[in-house]
Structures are given as C-alpha cells and as structure tokens.
Amino acid sequence: MTAYRRKKTCHFCENKVAIDYKDQHMLDRFTNDRGKILPRRVTGTCASHQRQLATAIKRGRFLALIPYLPDHAL
Amino acid sequence: MPRSYETVLIFDSTLEESVLEQKLGRLQGALVDDADESMTVTQWGTRKLAYPIGKKEQGTYIILRYDTEPDRLVEFERLAKLDEQVLRQLTVVDPIESTIEPAAATVEPAATVEPVTTTEPATTPSEPAVTSAKEPAETGVEEEK
C-alpha cells in the first residue's frame, strides 16, 4: 500500500510574508525545543527563504529574542 | 549616498528614563543631524531577555529607522560599544517594513509586581536560558536579504 504524503509548501511564499528578525513568534516556530534551526525538509520552506530565515534566527538570538540554548542545557 | 538603516539597541532596564533619553539623544546625534524629522524611533519597552546578558535579565529595546551616510555608522558604533549601558546593538541595512507589535512581550519591572492572590493559573514566561560567556561578535552592519 502506498502512503501518500501531502506536499509541504513554503509558508513565506504561500502567505507572501517577509521574514523579520524581530518577529519572535515566527522565529520560535522554525526552531526546535533545543533552539536549533529546523531543516527545510521538515518545514517545507523553499531554499531562498530558508537562507533568509537562518539569518533572521541568528539575528534574533543575538538580540536575546530567542535563546541559543534551552533553559535546562546549562 | 545615504542608505536606509535599522538599528536595534538594548539598554540596561535599570536606567532612569531621563538618562536613557540623554544617551539615546547622543547616539542619534551621531547618526543624523535632525533626529526629530529624519528618524523613526520605536520603543518596545522593557522585556525579559531570552538569556542573561552580563547578568542582566531584562532590557529596554529601542528600534531606530533612518537614512544616513554609511560613514556616520562608524562613529555611532564606536559610541554604542563604549557605553556599558548598551547591552546589544545591531544595525541592518535596507530593512523590510515591519509590522511587529511588541506590546505582548513587554514586561513590567520586577519592583512593581504584586503578590498573586487569585486562584487563576499563572501565565508567567519561562525563565531565560543560562548561557556561557561566549557571545558572538555580531555587531557589524548586515545586509538585509
């Protein structure tokens, strides 16, 4: 039996939203509970937006909007 | 030729408002000649930091949007780095139009928090992550995609 999986689409292309490094909730959505950037095979983000997203997440971390590490890591 | 920039400054939350205004005015003066006309200042207020910066748990976020000559940023960054009350500064060139509403994340200073007497479930934000002293040297100007 073939399992069909819905094709993932890029959240930013579909909704035509720009990636803002100050949008804490959006950045949270694309990091896992260890604070790591989720791969595009998981989120479905296109290559162009994934690169922008990685930059935005790194800026968000620097500005202490999102953590580098989870609370319990140290 | 002037370019448009966006700078996020995080000040120490224990600073008095008058001192903060004074420091901000000095930094603005390094960037533009007339800050009232050619600069947009957005105050996010005091927020809990995701991790402590120099033992500070809270910071006052201020966002500046302006057009200026690239040469003037050098002096601005020098002044901001010298000021110990500036916890972080990040300047981005050609920023996108932002629609972020920061009010939800704003926290009151700890001194004004009263003891909770209601039986409602507490909705306090989680404690910030404790990180090592290793901080990235990411204070330069970055290109917005």
Describe this entry's structure for a reader:
The complex is a heterodimer of chains A (74) and B (145). Chain A is built from 4 helices and no strands. With 74 residues, chain A is mainly α. Chain A is globular. Chain B is α+β, with helices and mostly antiparallel strands. Chain B has a domain at 1-96: 2-Layer Sandwich (Alpha-Beta Plaits), CATH 3.30.70.60. In chain B, helix 1 packs antiparallel against helix 3. The two termini of chain B are 20 Å apart. Residues 109-139 of chain B have low confidence and may be disordered. The interface between A and B is medium-sized, with 26 and 31 residues.
The multimeric state of the shown protein is heterodimer
Please name the CATH topology of the domain at 21-67 in chain A. Answer: 30s Ribosomal Protein S18
The first-level CATH class name of the domain at 1-96 in chain B: Alpha Beta
What class do helices, strands and sheet pairing of chain B give? alpha+beta
CATH superfamily of the domain at 21-67 in chain A: Ribosomal protein S18
